[in-house]
Amino acid sequence: SYNEETPAKRHSTFASAPSAISHPPNNRAGGWSPLVSNKYQWLQIDLGERTEITAVATQGGYGSSDWVTSYLLMFSDSGQNWKQYRQEESIWAFSGNTNADSVVYYKLQHSIKARFLRFVPLDWNPNGRIGMRIEVYGCTYRSEVVGFDGKSCLIYTLNKKLSNALKDVISLKFKTMQSDGILLHREGQNGDHITMELTKGKLSLLINLGNSYSLIKSNIVTSLLDDQHWHSVLIEHFNNQVNFTVDKHTHHFHAKGEFSYLDLDYELSFGGIPMPGKSGTLSRRNFHGCFENIYYNGVNIIDLARRHKSQIYIVGNMSFSCLEPQVVPVTFLSSSSFLALRGTSGQDEIFVSFQFRTWNKEGLLLSSKLHQSSGGFLLYLSDGRVEVHTKCWGFISLSGAGLNNGQWHSVSLSVKRNRITVRVDNDVTSSAHAFIPLQIYSDVFYFGGCPSSGNISECNTSFGGFQGCMRHISIGNKAVDMISIQQNGFGNFSDLQIDLCGITDRCLPNYCEHGGECSQSWNSFHCNCANTGYQGATCHYPIYEQSCEAYKHRGNTSGFYNIDSDGSGPLGPFLVYCNMTGEVINCFNLQLAKSANRENPHTVFFKYSASLDQLQATINLADHCEQELAYYCKKSRLLDKLDGIPLSWWIGRTNETHTYWGGSLPAVQKCTCGLEGSCIDSQHYCNCDADRDEWTNDTGFLSYKDHLPVTEIVITDTDRPNSEAAYKLGPLLCRGDRTFWNSASFNTETSYLHFPTFHGEFSADVSFFFKTTASSGVFLENLGIQDFIRIELQSPSEVAFSFDVGNGPSEVIVQSPNSLNDNQWHYVKAERNVKEASLQIDQLPQRSHSAPPDGHIRLQLNSQLFVGGTASRQKGFLGCIRSLRLNGMALDLEERAKITPGVEPGCPGHCSSYGNLCHNGGKCREKYSGFSCDCTFSAYAGPFCKKEISAYFWTGTSVTYNFQEYYTLAKNSSSHASSFYADMTLAREAITFAFRTTRTPSLLLHVSSFYKEYLSVILTRNGEFSDWKLKISGNTKEHHNCQLGFSQISRPDSGTTNRPVVSLDGIFVFQLHQFILSSGTEFNAIKSLTLGKILENSDVDEETMKANSQGFVGCLSSVQFNHIAPLKAALHHSSSAPVIVKGRFTESNCGTLTAADSTSTNAIRSDSAIIGGVIAVVIFILLCITAIAIRIYKKKGIYSKNEAKGSENEDSAESALKSELSMQNTANENQKEYFF
């Protein structure tokens, strides 16, 4: 049977050289042992006919010290043109024996169908020589072949009853003599067709359903199919789904078109198109080569042809045999490989020709002498082109382009008298000529490189040797017999493989992930990851974070960011707006719906810039998602109460219909007002169901994550008189990241969490955060039979990533200059792919180790994944692990920790690592999942206390913050002020604020006490138009109506030299004087702080009174007085804070520097100049030195654009709708701002 494994009985053997044969007792064969042990020996087996080989076994020579430790296995149908058998995807060599007697048995992953086998020793016992006994296992192989000469084809007429079957299965094997040709074609009357065509050694499958082409090129699947070896093809077509398999590599795709099945004629042709011109888009070249075992839906086509059945029609000459080409290729394995052949000395001309194929852009092809005294010439590849260079005459010619594409290319060199001609691919346009005076003298030609020993002047070159294949080598129009050279030693060679071309496509399969472009050389491949959103040797690891939460905790501010929700998974990144409380995804405009009923509904589809799979990954990752859906109605109902049938509904991402509306719950056919009992008609559960002839609405947020986002809305009740509706879909808002803070605490060295086996055969990435006080411990480990992967803390400053994929253990180590066991969060990222392994800790440079070019590449694990420990319960980790991701998928550490002894869910102490993200006096507060910044005592707001709180002050505006009521002082009038309230008497005041104004003098800030002491900060002019002065005036017990300090602000053109000015994009930043306040200054019983105009009667100095006449007009921002933020209290806590506001006072973003602020370059008059600055005032009693930095912005009319934010409430839903409809065109233009 096919699966039966029995030793092959009928065979003959011969070897590469004379062998020493031993005859042990009991008539047992002693084995093969050549007299000379070198890498050019081989043992060949002829099985008599093509046989399916399933396994091989080897032993050493009987009773000897001769055995082979590694070998290559080759196969052939003709005894020539061999092909190497590969294990996995890149392993060439088999591991052999370690002694003479034990048997090493290999079951082949993919069986070999061939007549000849060849064992080529690579290494052997260093204390002996080559010695082998072999056994080959397999079974008979049924082979039906047919040969085509490039001018013929075979036509099979199908059974008409079965021709319209929705499922077709076609299988065959082919061996081609040419790199181009049509293998299969079938066509229909309406343009439907299916064609399989070979183009430049690559197979393409073209399927057309209803005049829409679906072209799948198998260079995605396989290439180099013109190697004159058998290749298998399987096409499975069901409806519009197609599986296309070439040599075990499968590509799945959907054929495009209007129909789900092919409407084809009853004829199927193999080897060509029977009627030229029937399909004008395809090549006319027929197939030249052989087919084997052609089956169509189980029917043996070649058997029908052999028996001359009526279903078969043959065009041209076709034979039931397969002629083997007599081509002997040569493989140049390394840059030190060469082939030296005798030339034709004494001739008056030279003609050399050959074919080559390679992936390398550079390499020496041919070199030789032209004359005894003139030196040699060089023929070499340079940047994929053929160049000719002579020692005496230098560079001569350049021919061809892109010759390193892995295809066969022909080169001919002709030298006659004083003329050199080079022709590439028989193309006259690619030929080059040069006229130089020379005499012909050439005794040796060096192909591919030069001998490493000896001084051969014509071969000395800086060009590297050629790596690739050559064939059809001819010198003086006489073909070179490479078999004779191999057997008899005519000529000289090194590091060659004769009678096979060992070129491989290292981009097949393509290990470049996420659309990375693969390019290759002879020994390796390279991935171009540009514009993919990924990085690394195989474009595996994402560049972007998985959520806004991750960006937030890197300290990023709100803005547009790319996020990659599944990390290194198949989904790509997409753009969202992060307001650092969550993602904002898409916004849709208000739309009107009319004349819709159940027979003719109004249906709208919402298309997001991200795919539904990307959105689903983002939603699953988030803590909470919501989307506002507003339905405006006038005589348009959502539900027909009589029959209970919905009249309008929406559809979510799972394509399910939903009849609950914004603010309601799933499975509850109600609106928000129905749940709250606030509908305009209590008999209905939605406002719109009241069916009134006036505009109303049902609006609210949809927050059930499994149903989001909204993809479709259907409206059916707008066809009655005066009936209409409108709808508006808000952006998809998501916040939080369920995995970012997911953590576990490991309390004992023997505790661990276990998870299912990690599957990362060809690419694997692991990332996590950890913190610990221990000096060592294993973070995670996963074992296989031999393979393993492990990440561990080896010492307080060293992390190691170790693994084995079959090439022996390998380790990447990163050493940190600082201790990693400092109980702070540290980030670890490890990646292993077929090219390299890398490890990175925090922001330290990444360390990486390259993988061997032809080693094992598949990581095969089978045990459980251990986190925080090992299977042996030794070297366990003590500390916390957080946000553990494997290939982009997060592991739920907390859920597993709940049921695991010695491990606790969660991990406290985030502020020790993230507390520095809280700015401007914000305090870090611990949370179970993460932390928060408490901005209570900060003048700023936002998640990190970085958002400026600004307000615009109009003429006469006054904002007063009262520190203590007067009656408290009256009750304690007999006591000293400092005895009843600590803050009432301050020896140090820290005042910071920013301002922007166009007016001087201006009173910026005023602090008063119950004892009529005060402090004023005034902006005034000093001189006509040149300088401004910031004065701090006050009245204390020690200083009555005096100037406590001042700082002078100079214009850039004032000519002063002791006040340096820095100009930056039109904004003038002033470095100001330091000033010292007198010691002993003390404020007693502080009463209030006023921003803007002082409204109450106050005994102040003349300059303060003058500045107070207009108060302050302009912008104040981020005002802080010790731990009090009066401006923030007035804007955000006016109802609870002791703040009194008089006059027009509006919150604004005027304190934020905008682009417009920095673009002015024109000089303006000083009386309209805008003066702004950030002032930090610190008043010391004993040590009173304050530096004040002032920024001056020269811009007219800026504040009219930065007035208060906010909107007025509309009087009714109808007016709101009309307003929105009137803005519809404008919104269409502006909505791009919210798209990603």
TrEMBL record:
Membrane topology, record value: Single-pass type I membrane protein
GO CC entries: basement membrane; membrane
Disulfide bonds: C880-C907
SMART domains linked: EGF (SM00181), EGF_CA (SM00179), FA58C (SM00231), LamG (SM00282)
Keyword Translocase among UniProt keywords: no
Domain named F5/8 type C: residues: 1-139
Keyword Transmembrane attached: yes
Domain Laminin G: 145-322, 328-501, 742-907, 958-1150
PANTHER family, alphabetized: CONTACTIN-ASSOCIATED PROTEIN-LIKE 4, PIKACHURIN-LIKE PROTEIN
Recorded family membership: Belongs to the neurexin family.
Protein name per its UniProtKB record: Contactin associated protein family member 4
